[in-house]
Design a protein that fits this description.
about 35% helix, nine-stranded mixed sheet, six-stranded parallel sheet, Rossmann fold, 2 domains, about 475 residues
Length: about 475
């Protein structure tokens, strides 16, 4: 089976969040199952572009409304990611370093999608599946069905995976002319609340819709930024498939980014060595439980609660814990955390930005990982934490609910709380301190148990294959 993944992100080429991790791993595991999986994404000007070898495989042109643009497709030569990787270049639109955040993102990703479908339409054969990810590829199912020039692609099954429904890519109807000429009787396939909504369009037009956890699929019916009725209406073609993690990249026994590697049998010594490296580097007390946050400092992740929750935890629990934050996002949150580094020196430190090596070291050296997310469609961080023997402290939502069981329940191995609030976080930190300080036998069992949990992509990749097969 030939599977084409279309995405705005793919690790290690360009990544802003979990989408990049998924698209960087799922195709590799599908190849291991004996299929042909390919990824098509924009050609951002990232380090990966300049440090690898490429070959030109196609050049073409299309229109974005009245504006003609030239595009080129290049292919990574060595198959170093375990699958074929193709990048789409459009001068003036995709030739930038960042993935998102430009005023013309609508034009950038619309032209990218048009180029992708135009290129596929020129192939001498048809792929078996076109799998699109999030709204940046959400117009493709509509174009394959209803744009006249691409009508011969209408019988190719399309699958949409929703990684985060909060971002939908809406644009005004005044931009409907961006798309190649299409059947105007099908305008309802684009419309949601009187605007063109690429994510809603993909939900309507894709043959199958998947979400990245079981619980998130249920949550979308009552919490999906205005698409609640749509998900209820289309529930018959929706299925939840829990994301996996790439066990080859995330393996504490082989991870080259750690101070000291370790296995389940050497977890105490290994984690202590990595914790010492972190505490020495960031001026924290190695004797206290180390709680880390790794992620975007945005409202979805409840990062705005961190300053008050951390200060409350330090006061209420008499300074018997330390915090280390890695992330970037809202300027106000970054500023508050930076100020706390001075006010609570020795109890908290913050690294503003993103560092893949530091994130690995934090998963290995931390005692607890805090994820108070308001929205967490799946979450990969808690799975990385489990793999590295770090106890997750998570809000009871989305994929966090599906992957973490509270240690107060039968065979529980984490800490869960219900509300994204300062009080709930502070209370959970207290439970973590008590577990670390007073329940050594349970603590040791939990770390060994969680490291044995299999969240690899092997089973999830097969679930996607099963979805594809059902459409043939």
């Amino acid at each position: 089976m030939e599977i084409i993944h279309v995405s705005a992100e793919c690790y290690p080429v360009a990544k802003a969040g979990g989408l990049g991790d998924v698209v960087g791993a799922l195709p590799k595991y599908q190849v291991k199952l004996g299929h042909i999986a390919k990824v098509i994404m924009p050609m951002y000007r990232t380090k990966f572009l300049y440090t690898n070898e490429w070959e030109l495989v196609h050049e073409g042109g299309q229109n974005l409304g009245p504006h003609w643009f030239h595009y080129s497709i290049i292919k990574e030569k060595t198959n170093k990611l375990g699958f074929d990787l193709f990048l789409v270049d459009i001068n003036g639109l995709l030739d930038r370093e960042k993935i998102y955040g430009y005023n013309d993102d609508t034009e950038r990703f619309t032209s990218f999608q048009i180029a992708v479908v135009d290129w596929i339409s020129k192939w001498s054969h048809k792929p078996d599946i076109v799998h699109v990810h999030d709204h940046q590829a959400g117009l493709i199912p509509f174009m394959m069905k209803h744009c006249f020039v691409f009508n011969h692609l209408a019988d190719i099954p399309t699958v949409l995976t929703i990684h985060n429904a909060q971002y939908q890519g809406q644009m005004g109807w005044d931009k409907s002319y961006y798309l190649p000429s299409w059947d105007r009787w099908k305008w309802g396939g684009l419309d949601w609340n009187n605007s063109i909504n690429p994510l809603a369009s993909a939900v309507k037009c894709a043959w199958k819709v998947t979400t990245v956890s079981w619980s998130y699929l249920d949550e979308l019916k009552y919490m999906s930024a205005g698409l609640e009725n749509l998900f209820e209406y289309e529930k018959g073609k929706c299925v939840g498939i829990l994301n996996g993690i790439d066990n080859e990249v995330w393996d504490p026994s082989k991870d080259p980014l750690l101070k000291q590697t370790y296995s389940k049998l050497t977890v105490d010594i290994g984690k202590q060595a990595n914790k010492k490296e972190l505490c020495d580097r960031f001026g924290l007390d190695i004797e206290k439980p180390l709680i880390v946050f790794i992620g975007r400092l945005v409202g979805e992740k409840a990062a705005d609660l961190l300053p008050d929750a951390i200060s409350s935890s330090i006061y209420q629990h008499h300074g018997n814990c330390c915090f280390l934050i890695l992330g970037s996002g809202e300027t106000a949150v970054e500023g508050e955390l930076a100020d706390m580094n001075n006010r609570f020196s020795g109890y908290i430190n913050t690294y503003i930005g993103y560092s893949e090596p530091l994130s690995h070291l934090m998963y290995a050296g931390a005692d607890f990982l805090l994820m108070p997310s308001r929205v967490e469609p799946c979450g990969l961080n808690q799975m990385y934490a489990l793999r590295y023997g770090t106890v997750p402290i998570v809000r009871n939502t989305g994929g966090l609910r599906d992957t973490v069981t509270d240690f107060g329940d039968w065979q529980g191995f984490g800490i869960r709380f219900d509300n994204a609030s300062v009080w709930d976080i502070t209370y959970s930190v207290g439970r973590a301190i008590d577990l670390y300080t007073n329940k050594k036998e349970l603590w040791d069992w939990m770390r060994g148990y969680m490291m044995d949990i299999d969240h690899s992509w092997d089973s999830a990749a097969q679930e996607y294959i099963d979805v594809y097969t059902s459409l043939k």
